[in-house]
Amino acid sequence: MTFSRYRLFQLMLSLSLALFIICLAVQLTLLFTPLYYFDVRHLNIMAQSGLSYRRIVDNYNYMIYYLLNPMPQPFHLPSLAYSVHGRIHFEDVKRIFTFIDILLIATLLINVTGFWIKIKHRDYYFLKTAAIALAFFTIVPLIAFTLDFNDSFIIFHKIFFRNNYWIFNAATDPVITILPETFFLHAALLVLGIIILGIIALTVFYRKLSGEKSAK
Q: Of 41, 86, 149, 165, which has the fewest beta carbons less than 10 angstroms from its beta carbon?
């Protein structure tokens, strides 16, 4: 493998590994429903929405199931009204998570193949570059959240959605009353926390494997 091809392969594998960890962190956060159950009481969502704990949780669990299920299905909240625009927004969100599922599988296949090649040649530098890429990805959102999470939240939606259907009216889409912005902040911090654990793991593995290589 020529030097230029080596660098290109190194970059592709590092980015694939970083992207895999980011996608995994997003999916694990979505699956971690205890975070929301805690916030229902911690953020006093029952009082804010005027709904019972059971009704809130039932509707939230449905949303998670809907978003995680890759198969096409109609959106229908169990016991909350919603507008056409609200339904379309959830369909848009589902498409994003389906795309994340595809990325997760694609990067996993790339990583398995790349790992086999790299480990065979005892070349572990891609672990370090993946950790650096993830560190950059983590620092930028943390700075943005610290400065103003509300603005970051708005910018995120403007980037990922082609319409303004994410701006809910509580009168027509009461689901917004059970999804406060602070909960999304907690979820975003959990995603970043999982990514930081990934950075630590990559760094530890890189040092350990590089040390073993040097010892031999």
A: 41
**Residue in the block written with tokens 């809130």:** 56
Alpha helices in 34-83 (DSSP H): 34-42, 45-49, 53-68
For residue 73, give both structure tokens: 């299905």
pTM: 0.90
DSSP 134-189: HHHHHHHHHHHHHHHHHHHHHHHHHHH-SSSTTS--TTT-GGGGGS-HHHHHHHHH
Place of tokens 């939240």: 153
pLDDT tens for 76-101 read 999 999 999 999 999 999 999 999 99
CB-based contact 40:55 (threshold 8 Å): no
Asked if 166 contacts 89 with a C-beta cutoff of 8 angstroms, the reply is yes
SS3 63: helix
Contact criterion met (CB below 8 Å) for 20 and 202:
no
Contact in structure between 153 and 181 (CB atoms under 8 Å): yes
What one-letter code names the amino acid at 106?
A
Using an 8 Å Cβ cutoff, are 94 and 67 in contact? yes
CB 45 within 8 A of CB 178: yes
174-194 burial code (b ≥16 CB/10 A, e <16):
bbbbbbbeebebbbbbbbbeb
Lowest mean pLDDT among 5-19, 34-48, 185-199: 5-19
Residues 6+ positions from 31 with CB-CB distance below 8 Å: 64, 68
